[in-house]
Write a structure and sequence with these properties.
Layout (H helix, E strand, L loop, with lengths): L2 H12 L6 H8 L20 H4 L6 E2 L2 E2 L8 H6 L1 H4 L13 E3 L6 E3 L2 E6 L11 E7 L3 E7 L4 E15 L4 E8 L2 E5 L5 E5 L5 E7 L10 E2 H6 L3 H8 L16 E3 L6 H4 L7 E2 L5 E3 L6 E2 L3 E6 L11 E7 L4 E6 L5 E7 L1 E7 L5 E7 L2 E5 L5 E5 L6 E7 L7 E2 H6 L3 H8 L4 H11 L7 E2 L8
Parallel strand pairs: 9-15
Antiparallel strand pairs: 1-2, 3-24, 4-5, 5-6, 6-12, 7-11, 7-13, 7-14, 8-9, 8-10, 8-11, 8-12, 10-16, 17-18, 18-19, 19-26, 20-25, 20-27, 20-28, 21-24, 21-26, 22-23, 22-25
Helix pairs in contact: 10-11
Bound molecules: 2-acetamido-2-deoxy-beta-D-glucopyranose (3 copies).
The site of one 2-acetamido-2-deoxy-beta-D-glucopyranose has 11 residues, from loops.
Amino acid sequence: MHLQLLSLLASAVLAVPIIDREQQALGSAGGNGPYNPDNNDPYDHKVDSYAKGWQPEPWRNGHGATVFGPRNRDRERQNPDMIRPPSTDHGSMSNYRWSFADSHMRIEEGGWTRQTTVRELGTSTEIAGVNMRLDYGVIRELHWHKEAEWAYVLEGNVRVTALDTEGGNFIDDLQKGDLWYFPSGHPHSLQGLSENGTEFLLVFDSGSFNEESTFLLSDWLAHTPKAVLGENFRVSPQIFKHMDKTDKYIFQGSLPGSIDEEKPDGAGVKKSKLQFTHKMLDQEPVNTTGGLVRITDSTNFPISKTIAAAHLDIAPGAMREMHWHPNADEWSFFIKGRARITIFGAEGNARTFDYMAGDVGVVPRNMGHFIENLSDEEPVEVLEIFKADQFQDFSLFQWLGETPKRLVADHIFQHDPKSAEKFLTQIHDAEKDPIKSGSGTNSE
Ligand SMILES: *[C@@H]1O[C@H](CO)[C@@H](O)[C@H](O)[C@H]1NC(C)=O
Ligand SMILES: *[C@@H]1O[C@H](CO)[C@@H](O)[C@H](O)[C@H]1NC(C)=O
Ligand SMILES: CC(=O)N[C@H]1CO[C@H](CO)[C@@H](O)[C@@H]1O
């Protein structure tokens, strides 16, 4: 047996932590999985404590002790790798996880909105995200802002309108899995369609974006002298007498007809030559052994010059392989499932975070990472979003496969030629497999 493992086992026997009563109760009621004082896992396997109902405890390879004081058990079950980090985690790292459940909800007529920006998550400097719900007929009012806006429809149907810089107008109806992109300053609106309206994720190309401070049509009109409004629109100022004195933002509108019925048709009206929307989920996925990958950036959605994105379906037990992104921070939004990510920050620093539906993750550019599906039953569905015109990543597998074998063996297996041979055979074809299926080689 390996020496290190032997000494781990020995220390486990010598330093058996004291078990509290609650832990004994859990133990007798069918066990608490790998969270017990004599647990030993030199390989740091993942644990789906949330699905199994296990209570993570800070016991690891013979070290640790119970949590004696107050605790939030629900949060701990969602964060097994915080309570008992892999033994490979080390050093100080910033926080790279936030849940929309911790974001303030702004409730409006027929809808709501909440945001995750650099103010909620300090490392979210390149991207801000907004989660919004609009019921049937509910309008996110005509507005514009400095930041470009990219969006993914999570549920339901939505109508978008926009204007381009040449005065061309754009209208489209979108459904789940569709995107839109409005460049900086372009005016636009959103409205929920039947039967239950819509919910979507908005993404802005600056972490300090604030959904509360966009330029609203109603806000501007309410703060312009009515005499000027009359002059501007060539009408009597009196017709603005009953206009709202505050902004509308999100409000119940009248029910929309079809695009054909509603599209503007005046003499000066023209259609935009630009395509502001895209059907991401209709794209043919990239082939991988462990799931589906769809990439949308300015190469297949030309208007999206500042946001690139990947949509991943990671099968139960599968893993988004070890990789990094050279051109932008990753900002991810988890739609389904549970996952763990270890972020490698150089200088021996690494920290593992757990994510579930509704969570946001950040991985700074160039920091190595993977996404492991914690569940054996449920897939992970996640959006990886970048402030970039193109999606770019480096695969560790591919890098080593395309490096002289001698060099690779010298680095990792200098005194272990037998293991070197096994490893080099495995990476020989250097084929990038962005999501790797569970191999079954992971058990002891
Ligand atoms: C709309 O909401 C109602 C009530 O929650 C639900 O019964 C119905 O299935 C929903 N329709 C769709 C298309 O999701
Ligand atoms: C996808 O990959 C599998 C094996 O990895 C292969 O059998 C299949 O033909 C591939 N399909 C496409 C469309 O490339
Ligand atoms: C193939 C594989 O790695 N399967 C693992 C998937 O994750 C569960 C834990 O959630 C492990 O028990 C499996 O070994």
